[in-house]
Amino acid sequence: MTMSLGPYASFIVTSYAAAALVVAILIGWIVLDYRSQTRHLRELDRSGITRRSGRSAMDRP
Amino acid sequence: MTLIDLANPTRFLALTTRVLPWLAAATVILLAIGLYQSALAPDDYQQGATVKIMFIHVPNAWLSMFVWGVMSIASLGTLVWRHPLADVAAKAAAPIGAAFTFLALLTGSLWGRPMWGTYWEWDARLTSVLILFLMYLGLMALWRAVEDPSRAARAAAVLTLVGAINLPIIKFSVDWWNTLHQPASVMRMGGSSLDKSFLIPLLVMAIAFTLLFVTLHLAAMRNEILRRRVRSLQMMQASRIAFSSEMGAGSRHDNASKEIGAA
Amino acid sequence: MTALSALIRRDIRIALRVGGGALIGVLFFLTVVVLMPFAVGPDLALLSRLGPAILWLGALLASLLTLDRLFMADHEDGSLDLITMSRTPLELACAAKALAHWLAAGLPLIVATPVLGLLLNLDMVATGAVALTLLAGTPALTFTGMIGAALAVTLHRGGLLMAVLVLPLSIPVLIFGVAASQAVIVGPMSFGAPFSILCALSLVSLVIGPFAAAASLRHGLD
Lengths: 61, 263, 222
What we know:
The complex is a heterotrimer.
Chain A: H1 9-46
Chain B: H1 3-6, H2 9-40, H3 54-81, H4 86-116, H5 124-145, H6 149-180, H7 196-262
Helix pairs in contact in B: 2-7, 3-4, 3-6, 3-7, 4-5, 4-6, 4-7, 5-6
Chain C: H1 2-16, H2 22-40, H3 44-67, H4 69-77, H5 79-85, H6 90-119, H7 124-152, H8 158-185, H9 192-220
């Protein structure tokens, strides 16, 4: 994609790169958090804890 | 799937697991289209190619306020209707909204440097968004300051609603303050009636970012529900251990008193 | 009504005691105003230009400092629970406490303003304008600050968080307060417009503040 971005090309590129970075960080945080929570749930399930409703911790809907 | 069904966390989790892949795919497609159209957009008569920053800046600025609106509705859900998932929605939205606000500020600053010659300008719009960013951070701090999520939820709900009332006031005040102090230059966006070649990529990017928010928000809500489940299970586990150690400690207590008696 | 007036009288009396915090606010105000020339330089012309802003900023920070104790002291000795459980509506009780706080902590700031104006090389007219705008604007600061105080009451280290929560809400008051003062000093803009908006902000906060604070207390003290 060769297009002339003019004299301020670095600003344009930085903006788009920053947006991509921030979105990537958001996605990364959410994915890592999900993995962490499911890991905790798996460990709790292994130690035999059940929820109040009697269902197992790893209740996979 | 009625709203009542959505109140049940387990059913909500089932719904998100089914819906998320589609949402993610739609987001990626729209972002791709938007980016392609932004790249192809012509240069502005005055701003040159830097007008392309607008395609990131404006959707993020719009979303920063939209997310606060979503949190306000969720806060009403917590305080007025006691909807079980309302506070989950509110808590999950805050960091995402803060990130969009930060992007709006950053891209606005990067857009400002070529336009106004300075990275920061106490322009009415930038200043109001900066204050909004501070409010997001304060809200996130409040969420984490209280141990019990449901008590934190109610405090955060009040702050969110007060903030919602205050946002128009802040915008108006800063506008007034700005005209009072006569800014160094006036920002032009190529006029209020944008040419179609700019308007369409802008709208596509706006929809793409909105879809991105919805996807991230649902995923974050899922995480929050799981986090609360982990917390209650850990508390159950801790009380179980405490209970069983109490039973075991009974005999130890007798020994201890015997020892003290002997001493 | 007597319950509310008793509450007001009690709060004022406590605030005016040695550890009560009302006069500490004035001392902090004085400190901030004294610090400014050290930061800005002793140029009197510059100080008189910045004067209204410095005074307003000092008053804002001083009232923020004392707002912390609005509910904290009562929460610690249990009287907040009694107030919440009494027959008077919690909204009115919050309004009464805020009024007492303003009388005990806000008014002294306004009284101190002419003296501090001297330090900043402000003339009589300017100082009068600042004092008048403070009179109109400090109720807004107190009543919106009360919301932050109520939110932070159940947190142990709530003080700093409260300041972070309250400051964005106080920005409009600051803007219009300084704008009104500057209008009198510098001139072409009218005094009436920002001043009436300042009064409007105070009046609105008189309503929203107690309701929001009461809601926070109710939910936070469960």
